[in-house]
Amino acid sequence: MGAHHDDLHDTAEPHGRALRLGIGGPVGSGKTALVAALCRSLGPSLRLGVVTNDIYTTEDADFLRRAGVIDPERILAVQTGCCPHTAIRDDIAANLDAVETLEERFGPLDLVIVESGGDNLTATFSRGLADRQIFVLDVSGGDKVPRKGGPGVTSADLLVVNKTDLAPMVGADLTVMSRDAAAVRDGRPVLFTSIREDKGAHAVAEWVTHMVGAWQHEHGEPHHHAAQQAPAS
Amino acid sequence: MNGEAALLLLADSRLPAGGHAHSGGVEEAVRRGAVTGTGDLARFLRGRLATAGLVTAALAAAACELAASETAAELWRRLDAEADARAASPAQREASRTQGRLLLRTARRLWPSAVLDTLARAVPEGPHHAVALGAAGASAGCAPRQAALTAAYTSVTGPATAAVRLLGLDPVTVHRLLADLAPAIEGAASAACASPGDAAGPTGWHALPGHSAPALDLLAEGHLTNPMKLFVS
User: Fold this and answer.
1) Rounded CA separation A103/B89 (Å)
2) Could you tell me the maximum CA-CA distance found in chain A, to the nearest angstrom?
3) For B49-85, what is each residue's pLDDT tens digit?
4) Contact B30, B163 (CB under 8 A)
5) Prediction ipTM score
6) B31 has a chain A CB within 8 A of its CB
7) What Gene3D superfamilies does this protein map onto (chain A) (predicted)?
8) Count of A–B CB contacts within 8 Å?
């Protein structure tokens, strides 16, 4: 993946800063569980920060703090004024501010995860906010969801289909989901997970580790950023 | 008149500067039952325009005037302190600074200028929104009255949109309220720029309008106690 298509990410100042990873997907698909799993798996080896975009204030941030997988101070919650997709796509100012606040307070960081508020299939992250993005679906939403496509399913750098343990109970056919996703994703990867059974979401963590390595290879080791530096011109 | 297109950009709710996540006290007013429909909302908006709207318009005009001639950090800190002195509620000051910081970061990429760099260095935690708005307006090519007009306009359009989202009001009815307020918005902009000559500069800042709105102060403070809030303020 990645090698065969141009990198269109145009985030300002990629050099010497953390990889910014967006995690989006519909309500209840397991975004927060995935963030917790990644913190569990990657926390020992990577310097992490997390930004959440909750529907209600700090619900997801509180979940992560209770899970005890990351220093609570390294989680910042952004409020989105009823419009979670606006905050990650059309007006990313508050999220960028939160990301940079984490980098100023705790930097240098290797990875900042930005979790979107639960939204619909059309919600994707702006390239000005996320360098890479994961879209999370779950099998209980129905095995036809990948076929329906939408920017999240078709264009995310990684598609995660979660709650595979529920597939027999909801009558979801994983081969159908896999085939349909492959058909609309132009070779970009799809991973099936059951975070309930694999608390570290290890396959996803491996993919993220690979992304962080490639990012640092291209843009250098993250170093500390001073507050209020001039933006890239 | 010069600066007209810049004025439209600056006043557009699509300007990606974080404004969409602020309700200007409407969310708390709705929670307390003070705003329940378009009748209440009309009175809320009229009151907000006559108080916070006029004060921020005057500050924005002063900032725009200052930006045209001065880049001394000390003067920016003084004007920012004038804005501080006109906001009784700590929550409101915090929300204003957050919006100012986000607007400044966006404006510095849209209209790079020495003035905006100086302002960012002078008030690292983020200048008040009105101060950032005036400086951004000047950098974009707007005149002080245009900056004042933008401040007065956004003092009611943001809260109106928030009410549409929170109460499910008819958006056309709410926009009719804004249309009816148009003369008052222009009146506030004129009143904000009423000081002639030298009085528009630093020596006249003490005489800038300081209309207080205790209800808005209380709403801003009350909002912080709402565990289910959707908007930042």
Assistant:
1) 29
2) 54
3) 999 999 999 999 999 999 998 679 999 999 999 999 9
4) yes
5) 0.88
6) no
7) P-loop containing nucleotide triphosphate hydrolases
8) 78
